[in-house]
Amino acid sequence: MRQVLRMLETRDSVAVAELAEVFSVSEVTVRSDLTALAHQGLVARVRGGVRALSKGQSEVGFDLRLRLEVERKRAIAKRAAAMIGESEAIAIDASTTGYYLALELRAKRELVVVTNGLLVATALADAPGITVLVTGGMLRLSAMSLVGDLGADVLRTTRINKGFLGARGLSIERGLMDLNPDEVRIKQEMADACEQVWGIIDGTKWHRSALLSFVSMDDLTGIVTDPSAPADEVEAWRGAGVDVVVADVGPMEPLPLRPRDLRRAARNDGETS
Questions:
Q1: pTM for this structure?
Q2: Under CATH, which number does the domain 66-246 receive?
Q3: Which residue has the higher pLDDT, 55 or 215?
């Protein structure tokens, strides 16, 4: 029921009856699948359907999105990381693809990373060759991000080589789009501080729109995506002068361990030794 999680990215709840009609299955089958999702901690069961866990539950909201399209996001992150040279200053937003990009950068040297994403910063906190600059501001729990004027002030006095920004949707007419006004503002400030601006966008976002634009097509250097992106739209962007890089989605190496993973592994070894 991955489609249910996708629907909950932009909606508060989804009804059993609607899902039964959309997927042409019985309501009994839908209820069983929704119960399984709830047991995995991905959704909350409510009368007549399910709701997203992101409201008032910050880490769960980010974690839910982190589990969607993992192979595509990791492939995009790996390809984007290959575009980043050592001794560069880059910006990464608080998107989940940005988090996977941070994990791919841990072996880089003399790299400065500017981010408003707390989990992006955490992923790089102990990487010896990377200096992390976290923008200030108000904490948005649902995205584990910092937004507001303090972050904007930092970015206005910073010059960054490349920025890598996620989006909820995109179109040639409106550029890259997102939903939350505070997130959109900090993304705009990031883009303005960057010499190059790259969208890191998996194929599911190409058919979507969103409330607010934060980077126009004219200000976008390129997009890193995966092979599921619609070929006609990819060619349209290229025809408009935007470089579209399609990442190969193949076998992936295990993700590098973060500090908390190492602590968990150590506890498990102690329990079984």
A1: 0.72
A2: 3.40.50.1360
A3: 215
